[in-house]
Design brief:
Layout lengths: L8 H11 L3 H8 L3 E4 L2 E11 L27 E6 L3 E8 L6 E12 L1 H7 L12 H8 L16 E3 L7 E4 L13 E4 L23
Antiparallel strand pairs: 1-2, 1-6, 2-5, 2-8, 3-4, 4-5, 7-8
The structure holds a DNA duplex (13 and 13 nucleotides).
Length: 210
Amino acid sequence: MRALPAPTSTVVTELAELLSGPPEQVAPLLLGGLLSHGGVTVRLTEVEAYAGPADPGSHAYRGRTDRNAVMFGPAGHLYVYFTYGMHFCANVVCGPEGEPSGCLLRAGEVVAGIDLARERRPRSGDRDLARGPARLTRALDLTREHDGADLTRGPVRLELGEPVDRVSTGPRVGLRGAPERPWRFWVTDDPTVSVYRPAKALPSGRRAGP
DNA sequence: ATTGAGATTTACT
DNA sequence: GTAAATCTCAATG
């Protein structure tokens, strides 16, 4: 890959400024945005906000660790973590520096490099190539190597797009302990939005409640 | 369409 | 040890 020309300062300033707001305000701005890496570009269709040290659903809730250190840094960088023993998930760090917030990138539509994305995910139909947080990182070839990447300088690039027409919100996916906040945001009626089941009930014998 | 098991790191009780 | 910001495969309605 060739070196890209330095981004113009207006673009960089604008992006950093937009991302330094609270994550639940940044999240809808990310919808329709373009994320590029490894020859593939994805148009973001679904994100989730995780807010600062006060959010029990956030990886930053219990303080800084080796894994989540990037969330404590400046906005506009990528936080990539490894989970369930096999998957990577990516967040855009947002909020003011020192306040660990981020937006989990849950799904997108591949708009460039679709052949590469198909090679990385041979069993997926095109709609499913980046439909889900771990699928999205696989399609874009993002790993812990890219943890901390500056989104204004590549190799991982983010460009905000036109605001999308309709945005829907709902509870976040996969959390069990956290109070529900309607901090999942997606492009209304977009077919590439993930449709994952909610978090499983407790282990056999017990039930989560009525 | 929906269900359940399995894969196996990181962080915490 | 257990649960987690998950996904794939196989079996089933």
